[in-house]
Structure formats: structure tokens, C-alpha cells
Amino acid sequence: MKNGKLAYLVLCAMLVACVSRNGKHHAGTALRPANGGKTYGGTFRLNMVRGSPNALDPIKIVSKVGDDLALQIFDRLITFDSTLQVKGELARSWDISPDGRTYTFHLRTNVRFHDDPCFPGGRGRLLTAKDFVYSFTRCCDPTSGSLTYWAFKERVVGVDRYHAERATNPAAALPEGFQAPDDSTFIVRLVEPQAPFLLVLANGLGCPVPREAIEHYGKDIFRHPVGTGPFRLTKWEEDRVIVLDRNAGYWQTDEHGNRLPYLDRIEVSFIKDDNVQFSAFRQGDLDENFTIPTEVFPVLVEPGTGKLQGRFAQFQLQRIPALCTWFVDFQCTKAPFDDRRVRRALALSVDRHRIVRYVLQGSPWGPANHGITPPVLPDYPIDDIPGVGFDPEAARRELAAAGYPNGQGFPAIEMTIYPEPRLKQTAEALQQMWKEHLGVNIGIRMLNFAQFLEQTESGTLPMWGTRWYGDYPDPETFLGLYNGALLPADPTAPSYPNSVRYDDAEVTSLIKRAMMEPAADLRHDLYRQAERKLTQDAPSIMLFYEMHYRLLQPWVRGYALDPMARNVLKHAYFVGAS
């Protein structure tokens, strides 16, 4: 412990001595003036510690890394503003029928796909409503490798029939629920009213992809995204660099008439060590730092105020409670975690406060003392959702009742994680707690992020540590992880988002009733009932709720941070000379 403290003090001294020594940014080319005091030009450099995305095809993106990049490449039918209110993007407006079953979207008529070899002459064509019919249908096509069918399953007219028939019949009739009566009108018809449906559409599901790109690139489409967004992919070297260049023909302008985006380029690196990432940021080699190393957090941020202190005050600090929860998942259909008592035993032996205080070292994250939904949604209080607390005696009783007294006979099991420093530190703390309180030895296995995603969805992992960023500001984005209605008919098929394969009839029924309930207070009460039940069943061990902290260089402007931590860079620009 003394050696650890000494190393920590040495690291702190080095950081203070080396703050932003270069004091410059990488604008690349000279900045060009724009209306309203904005500027054009520059290369925005950011790093993603979790590594390359699993895909840049909207129907296969299931990671925060992929979603952040997709936000630059693709536009959505509708989207969220910085306060998480729904607003139009490719849809300029929409109407909802009185019975809540028909959504009619009126599309913009001046939007073009990126220039790409998939089009005749390489010139991107105009977007039409048929592109939405094609793209949304592709979400429901079992032969496409889609991981987004869950969003439309049992919701949209005809998609379940299409999904079943398409598996064996390439000529299956298209879903009746997606229609394009003309080039600028897209209609979605629901089986029953769905209160959160607009929120669901506002995540990455609403990204149109041209048929030409799918046919041109085939199975390689995941590495050749063609969208309508402000940037286009020009380089991808796995786990090394991704480069996005400005889409000069982007349709959107700002309030001053400037055509977006302002930046010339985005360069993404994949440094897996958050200390190395922080070092690159403080020397001016990165324009943002999203993951602050836990061991240096107390040196950076003044206790009690949340403000940067000392020489670090030259940077910009953004902070906001996150729509994000960290947890350990169990594969609920396989022994020993098909036994509720085993899951509860491991959950009851976790001291969350100890992890937050000693492992996260003062980072302002809260222990997850309630359910999976973090305390971020203003109309969804979680105080009446009791979590599984720290009770080692009760944990030992549960484990003994399951047939493993003092851990005797418990099988050799590994908890799988991906490269994320805080996740590794937390996994090691959990490993120690389970050994100390239960006599159970749990190993730790590290996979790269793409392998991790593949194996969690396939059901091959017994347990794994992860986090979940909400896709939209509604409890269903978290409760959907445990919705039995989203399980595949084939138990050997990939299961997303219910990767734990939890199937409880009461919870599933409550979620379904909530989604159909138009009154927010009644809907949220149903969600809380479902959350209370599943939390006590412990298909996951809730660990902590995240607080987002993002550092920006002093020359960055127009880069907002919201609870979903969406990296929307089309409004970002630089100030000052390069």
C-alpha cells in the first residue's frame, strides 16, 4: 500500500509538471472565417480507449464506439437535441394519427448520399422515402445479420411475418408497416400504440443506407458506410486509426447560414491505456479526453466543487450525470447462473461503496443501490426500487441453499471483460470480494471489444462485466435488456439486446403494458414494478451509475455534452491560430 501511495504521488507530480506543454492545437490547415464568429477548418483528434467498432453498418452497431462514429457518418430520421428532446433531422416534420398507430414523416428534399463508387459516376444521389423503407426492412431481415430487429418486433405491422418468412424465402413480401407513397413521405404503421416509439426511432435505427451500397459492397458493407451525414469515412486501419473527412455537400446550415460541418477532418486513434490518452491530451495531441484516469482524478478536480484546479484550469471541463449504468451480467439459461440463488449470492457479496471509494478513487460515480435505470430521467424516480445490498451472511445462505456451502463444488468460471481500465480494476475488486465472502474463485478473461460483443450475443459466456448507455431517454432502453419478448425463437441464435436471456413472464408483461400506456406517470409505475422484480432476480449485478466528465482543449467550441454522451461534431469548431 505504501509503495502504491508513493507511485501515485510521483504520478501526480509528473502530471502537474507536464500540463499541456505544447499549448497548441492541430488545426492542420489555417482556419477560415465563417459568419457569426465561427470558423471553418482544422482536424479534430479524439481517442477511443475501447478499440475499433465492431461495424459501421447501422443495423450491426451495438457499441458506444460505433454509435459515436455513426453519428458523424449517418443522419437519422429524427434525433435528439442536447437536452434529449426529439427533433427532426431527415424528417422536417411528422404527424401521428389519433389512434397512435400511424406515423407519417415528411422528409427533406435536398439531402444527398455521400459521393461513393457504389453510385453511377461516383456521385451520391438524392435521398427518398424508399430508402427508409429499404433500410427499416433491412433491420428486420434475418439474413442481413441485423441486431436491430428488436426495435420493430411485435411493434410494426408485418415485420414479424416478414422476419419469419424471409429466413427461408428470399421473395418474402415486404412488411406492410413501412410505406413510401411518394419520394418525400415515409409512413410507419404500428400494431398497437407505442408510447416510446419516437424515442426508439431517434437512436441509430433511423439511419438510411442506400441499396446501391449494400449491393456494391456485400458482406464488406460494415467497413464501407455510405450515409448522408456531415462526414464520410476515408480511412480505417483496425485498432489504429479512423479518418472522417468533411462532406462538402452536406445539406444542413447553421443559424448564420454557414454550411455544416465546420471541421475539415476527424481523426480517431485507439490508445487502449487511459493514462497514455491523458498524456496525449495534456500535451495538445488530442482535442478531447473523455476517460479521466481514476488515479489522477483527485489531482485534476477540486473536491466539493467539481472544478478543475491549479494549472489544469486552462482546460475546459464538461460534467453531467450519465444515462449509463455499469453491471455484471449472467447467462441465465446455463448452470450455475440459471439458479436465482447463485446470482443473488454473488450480488449480495458486492460492496459497491468500497469499489467507488477505493477502486474508483473518488470519481463522482454513485453506487447502484437501486435498479438498472440511473437517476437521470427527471420523471422517473428510483428511490422506491430497492437494490440488492451488501449482505455477506445472506449471500452465504443463498449459495449454500443452491448446493455450494462455503463455495464447495462451485465450478471454475471466468468473468469476461473488454479493454477498459475502470472495468478491469472493478473486476479485480469483485474477484477479491467473491473469494473473501463466498469462497468462490472467479477468473478474469479479457477479449477485444469485437470478440466480446460476439460472444455475449451468442450466449457462450457464463458472466461478463459491461456498461450500458441508454439509447433514448426512457426506462425501456434499460428494461429492454430483460424483455423476454425479445428473445429469439431459436435458443442457439444470437440474442440482442436481451443477452442474459432472462425470461420472466411478469416482467415481460409489465414492460409490454408500459409501452402501450400513453400516460407517463402510469407508464413509469409499470416500469418500476418490472424493475423491482428483475432487480431482486439478479440477472445482472448493478454496480454503479456514471457521471460523465469530459476535458476539452481551450480552443474547442460548439461541442456539447449530454447524458447519453453523444459525440456530435458537426457543430464543433476551433478558435485561435494554429
TrEMBL record:
One of its GO terms (biological process) is peptide transport. It comes from the Bacteria. It is found in: Cell envelope. SUPFAM superfamilies: Periplasmic binding protein-like II. Keywords: Signal, Transport. GO terms for molecular function: peptide transmembrane transporter activity. Residues 86-483 form the Solute-binding protein family domain. It holds the Pfam family SBP_bac_5. GO terms for cellular component: ATP-binding cassette (ABC) transporter complex; outer membrane-bounded periplasmic space. Belongs to the bacterial solute-binding protein 5 family. This is Solute-binding protein family 5 domain-containing protein.
